[in-house]
Amino acid sequence: MDVFADDYNELIDVDGVFGNKADNNLKEYQSFTDLEFSKNKSIAQIDWHPSIKGIVAVAYTEKLKYDDRVDLSSRILMTPSLILIWGFSDPIHPQLVLEAPEDIYCFKFNPTDPNIIAAGCINGQVVMWDISQYDARLRNHKNTGARANKTRSDMFDVEYQRSPVVHYAAVSSIEGSHKMAVMDLIWLPDTIEVARMGVPVENKSQASCQLVTVGIDGNVMFWDIRMQKPAGAGGLGALGSTAKKERETAKEKFSSIPATFSHLDLQWKPMNVVPLSKLTGPGLHPGVTISISQQLQIIKSKMQSLVSGNPPLIHRTNSSVSRQRPIEVEGVNTKFFAGTEDGYLIYTDWKAEKDPESGKLVSSKPVYAISTHAGPVHCLLRSPFYNHIFMSVGGWSWSIWKEGESEILQTSRSNVKYTAASWSLTRPGVFYIGKEDGNIDVWDLMDRSHEPSMSQNISSSAVTSLVPYRVSSKQVLLGVGDNFGTLHILEVPWSLRQASPNELHAMSSYFDRECSRIDYYKERDANRDTAVADSAPQIPTALETSEEEEDRLKKSFNNYLNMEKEFLVKLGLKREDDPVELLH
């Protein structure tokens, strides 16, 4: 009990949460679309800038199936693949245009140095940008930028409308990359590193230098952006040699490409590869999304490297990986979840294990693989308040899980497919579900758990991405991407962002009760199965002789006579000392 708590302030919060019910709709704060870059394209992913408010990046992809991509391959090659970085001060012109070699399905700002952006391409390669030379432009996008002094007549000037195009600084080796599309990407926290064979070690650089990707080819790959060992004479291969010539031509054309990651360009290969093996039979599960428990330790509010006085990560990545023996960190959970295209939830370990037969270190087999959704698992999201609670969304349903336990909550089948999801950043019991019909369902488990508390239409096309952003304690925004290539910025109402004083504890107790209820039913079913097995007649496993069969039948009949006597004694029809004529 907090003896210093202000009871009057607590009463004000409670009254506000339950009293102000008029303002409960998501309001359109701003929208972004580009007639040139986002025309006839879909939004694949959204990511907010970790340290600059009002800056959001969006990846756009072609709305084509595989057969259409093959038929229109010549047109696609001529169409640039882009990530647009928007600023709230200018909803018409993007602040930056990041050019990619292929369509981008996933990307993330580096949490400790946001000037570094990593992304996964449809062809399986991983690409990076260095936007450090445009950092001042992004920070001054509100009032002090060059556009702020433009008059209304100058707004139609070509130079004014042109956004800087940033060419990618490095791309991974074709031979060492995924063989199919990269579907999800996350940066490892700045507290640990992953060494060879998946061993977690201490991160002495205090910067996020490693990232994890998952692809449709069924592999999870760990990458390090620092200098690796140089490739041998034939390390690039035929495809790599051709790509290198194209990159040299591009660097001559784009003289502004920074040399930050020149040591990785076309030679970058993953450190570790973890296959999503099937439990039975050969083959791999096609991966779509991953969730690692330690990712919640990433510092997103400010760059730790600047606070501690260290130089930014961008000036330290060229240094090679230390040759000193790393110190293994104990107590790090190396297991992670992966969602697959065929609806499976896989729990596996990235740390290699020793094969009992050969004695060699091999990739770990999955702990379990559960078929939980009737369609691709689009999202695996850990709660911002409970690291052991996470949500999976796919097909026509969503589920809430507890790590180390089973599924604790599942919705009934919806009439419309679910396509995106996001937890609330301020309320433990609230989350948002995007649907194929353009609606967003708002679930408030403090209110009800059998149906959404509110459903609101946002777009006439499918919602493809949902990413919240906390501007301040008084403002929370929700970035929504749709299949038409429009980015909607919604403002979360006060009733959905302000938590009640005991909501954190109440939701924790709710999840614990659900786990206890499931454990009770499991134990009850196990006891029932045991009782049924004990009461079942014993069927002989081999052929009996006539004497063995006669003895067995006599024993059964004598048991029946004893049970009959006990029953008659209870009814008062017989006494305890009355004899029972047993067969001998």
Please provide a written account of the structure.
This protein has 10 helices and 33 strands. The chain is an alpha+beta fold. The radius of gyration is 30 Å and the shape is elongated.
Q: Mean pLDDT across all residues, rounded? A: 83
Helix run count: 10
Q: Give the radius of gyration.
A: 30 Å
Write down the overall geometry.
elongated
Distance between the termini: 73 Å
Low-confidence segments: 13-21, 144-160, 231-236, 295-311
What profile does the largest beta sheet have? Answer: 5 strands, mixed
Task: Give keywords.
five-stranded mixed β-sheet, 10 helices, 20% helix, 584 residues, alpha+beta, four-stranded antiparallel β-sheet
Give a brief outline of the structure.
The chain is an alpha+beta fold.
How are the elements arranged and paired?
Blueprint: H1 7-19, E1 27-32, E2 41-48, E3 55-62, H2 66-71, H3 73-78, E4 81-87, E5 96-100, E6 104-109, E7 116-121, E8 126-130, H4 135-139, H5 158-161, E9 165-167, E10 170-171, E11 182-187, E12 192-194, E13 200-202, E14 210-215, E15 219-224, H6 237-253, E16 272-275, E17 287-292, H7 304-307, E18 335-340, E19 344-349, E20 353-354, E21 361-362, E22 368-371, E23 377-382, E24 389-394, E25 397-402, E26 407-410, E27 418-423, E28 430-435, E29 439-444, E30 454-457, E31 463-472, E32 475-482, E33 487-491, H8 494-497, H9 503-535, H10 546-571
Parallel strand pairs: 5-9
Antiparallel strand pairs: 1-33, 2-3, 3-4, 4-5, 6-7, 7-8, 8-10, 11-14, 12-13, 14-15, 15-16, 17-18, 18-19, 19-22, 20-21, 23-24, 24-25, 25-26, 27-28, 28-29, 29-30, 31-32, 32-33
